[in-house]
Each structure stands twice: as C-alpha cells, then as structure tokens.
Amino acid sequence: MMNKDIFVKLLQQRQFKAVRSILDVMNAVDIASLLSELNDKELALVFRLIPKDKAAEVFSNMNNSMQSYLVEIFSEKELRELLDDLYMDDTVDMLEELPANLVTRILDTISHEDRDTINRLLNYPEDSAGSIMTTEYVDLKSDWTVSRAMAHIKETGIHKETIYTCYVTDHRKLVGIVSAKDLMTTDDEVLIQNLMETEIISVFTHMDQENVAQIFRKYDLLALPVLDAEGLLVGIVTFDDAMDVMVDEATEDITKMAAVAPSEKTYFETSAFSHAKRRIPWLLILMFSSIITGTIITKYENAFAAIPLLVSFIPMLMDTGGNCGSQSSTLVIRGIALDEIRFHDFFRVVWKEFEVSLLVGIVLATANGARIFLMYHNLGLALVISFSLIATVIISKLIGCILPLLAKQIGLDPAIMASPLITTLVDTCSIIIYFSIATRVFAL
Questions:
Q1: Model's pTM, two decimal places?
Q2: Is residue 374 included in any domain, yes or no?
C-alpha cells in the first residue's frame, strides 16, 4: 500500500510523471482507498492522472461522497468517457446514491439506449436480483462453432462484465451455458450445442438479493443468470455483486442484533447526531420495557425484608438468563441466514435447545448451589438458586430459539429478535421464576 505522505509530497512537488507511474502499478481498490485520504483538490488532480483503462474501476470502488464530488466537477467529455467504461450495474448503484441534480446530469450525458436500460434496472424492487444484476453478458448461439464463439468473445468481451461464463440463447430464451475454459480446451469445429450445459441454475428478477447470495454460496458460482417473468434472459449477477450483498446483509443483521437501525453510510461518514438517532428508539423501548421488571421486584418487597440476601443473586440470574438466550438466538439466526434452519424445523430446534438447556442448567445449578451452601451454610437458599437457574436457563434458551423462528415466519427480520430484546424478556421471566420459587421454599 502506497504511503500517503510520500504520495502527497510528490503531488506538491508536481512530479506528475512519478505519480502516474505509481498509479499505473497499483491495484484499483488500493487507489480508491488512497484517494479517500486526500482532500478534494488532490482527489480531482490524482483521478485525472489515473490510466484511462483503470479509471472506471477505481471510480466504482469509491464511496458516494467522492463519486458525487467528481461527477460535479467533471467536464461533459470526462463524464462521458467515464460512463462509457463503467459497467451498467456499477452505474445504477452510483445513481441510486447521487443527488437528483447529478443523476439528471448523468442521464443527459449517456445514450438513449443506455438511459432506457438504467431506468429499467432502477425500476426493479430494492434488494431484488433485478436491482443488482448487469445487462452486460456474453451471449452465444447453439449452432455456432467454438471458433466463431471465440471470435465473438474477442470482439465484444471487452465491454462485458465477465467472460468466464457465456450464455447460449435462442430469441433471448436461455438454453444453455458454456464456460470459457471449455471453449479454450475444445476443438474449433465443435458446435456450441454439443458443448453447453443444459442444467441451468437461474433466478428471477424479483427474487430477494439475500436468497441470490445464498445460491452463490451453495453452488460456488461465478455468475448467475437472471430471468424475467416470461423466462427470458435479462441479465446476470456476478460474484462480486453477490459478495457485496453478503457484506450488506451481514452488516444489517449485526446492527439489528445490537438494537441499532441500519445505515448505508460508513461509521465515520455518519454524523454523531445520525448515530444517536438510530440508537435512541430501541434504547427507549428497552429502557421502558425494563419497568416491568422493576414492578415485579417491587411486588416482592416483603421477601427482601425477610431475607435481604435474596437481592444479591438477582444480577447473577438475570445475566445468566440473558447470556443463555443470546447464545441460542445467535445460533438460530445464523442457521436461518444460511438456510440451515426453516420454520418446519420448529419442534426439532425447540427440542434441541431444551436438551442443551437442561444440561447447561444442571451444570450451572450444581456449581452455584455448592458455592452458596459452602459460603452461607443455607441449604434452602442453595436449592432456591439452583432450581431458579435451571428454570431460567431453560426458559431463556427456548425464548432465544423460538422468537427468531416466529419473526421469520411472519415476515420480520430474525435479527431484531436478538440480544437486547431477548435479554429484556428473559430478565422479566427470571425474576418471576426466582421469587416464585423463593416465596414457596421460604413460605414468604
């Protein structure tokens, strides 16, 4: 990775030939990362020094604010050249984030045909296969020979996002796929129809992008054809786009599991006010829901007065219950995300977690019961804590596995049923269990 200080020093000394030489050998992703550390004036200067064949790839790896700034200062000629080299899906991704005035400027710059394609892609539902696909793919005909197919790839491949997988079509209907490896290792006279695979894995334009990413993971694909409602090939989703989806979905799940509203901006791009705004609603909900726990504790004031020692064990019970519930919910949410667990596995999951909770509860109860008896020489107190622990662990693990499954079944994101919400519910349950057992054992 190029040292920023050295790079800036070369710029200040106006050693543009040296800067261009450095950019020529750097990876496009590393260049984008380096540019993110420069000020606007330096950014504009350096971007114009990037080799033309690399500029579009660098631009597609920039963040939204950098892209917006460059689009705003570019001349019509510079903007047209950049858009000609950008892949269609990268152009659409950029347009979705740019201000309206810059979107208008870009649409006025591109050809009528490209504008129609972009408008069609923008009209697909957000987070669908259609919204992340590209229309730039290599299509072949079944009656072509390998030599003709190779000639076609050489002629048009430079404008396609990938040439590793080629698609055999008949009036836009997908009839087969051929890999570049097969084409390069087969005799020139062989017909494509004798080489192509007809067992095709494909998706439809309105399929959720998370499901598309799961198909990539399951079948180890490089690209995935996208069909419209009539079964016609309209585009492909490439592996790099599927990876972006996986990162986005994982980020969204992590934020929801932490009771934070998701944001498309990076941590440092998001202002302190925006961070607070996304965190406060959940924190308010969880804070006020804890009033229920406080009300229950107040109800058992007489038990505290009779045996003050009971109070000291409340944090341990609540923390243990919360931790157990979080363990179960995390594993179940992961299983749902990877399509390992579905709603028809409901009773299998519940039974599995019940078995786990029983074993965990007995071990924790034995350890704590022995500790309490040795410290306080009070068998009744040891039994109360032990039975409360077992019941709390069982309840918390069942809540932790059931809530994500129910959320998925009713169309909610299972990630919202994660640690903060489950901990709040488990706290209430653990207090009820604890004092119910204590009042009976000690006849309070």
A1: 0.67
A2: yes
